[in-house]
Design brief:
heterodimer, A: about 10 residues, B: about 220 residues, globular
Amino acid sequence: KLVGDTKDEL
Amino acid sequence: MNIFRLAGDMTHLASVLVLLLKIHTIKSCAGVSLKTQELYAIVFATRYLDIFTSFYSIYNTLMKLIFLGSSFSIVWYMRYHKTVRRTYDREQDTFRHWFLVLPCLLLALLIHEKFTFLEVLWTFSLYLEAVAILPQLVLLQRTRNIDNLTGQYVFLLGGYRGFYILNWIYRYLTEPHFVHWITWIAGLVQTLLYADFFYYYFQSWKNNKKLQLPA
């Protein structure tokens, strides 16, 4: 889910 | 990572560095809203709680530390530094920003993607960031004389969210499952709040006159 997740955004 | 998001992060970084530079070099925070800075410190504190639990990339972690460090040090300067604190116009910066925190918290408890502690606080930080600039915009309208560093700060801050909207459009078009209504709507509301500031900023820049916001 991390790939499509916005959690990789600041 | 795409060019829009990188441009957004760099613009956001520039906005906090412009502000820190202003406060550190001229030892003055005239025209800067402490309320907005406190709201931003809360935004970063509640958004980056996962900094210890989930590692995504060096860049991601480094930028989180920079944003946390800069927002808290700006608040520290404005509250406790003997010279800077005297230049804070407390009478003008009267926006009751706690009235922004509670509705954002309630909204995050109602509308979120997952009902977990981290996710609710992360969603809260999105809603709070959307409105965090309000005390600063109110202060700018009150003090009317906008020195160009504060104007640049608000301009860059608005620009960063504008780049993020382009980033979300790009990711929606290129990544099949990338749909995040909460992030998109909060980000759009935030950018719209800057719209009138942008209008007056460009007017003053085009006519090469001092930036004056209407009362």
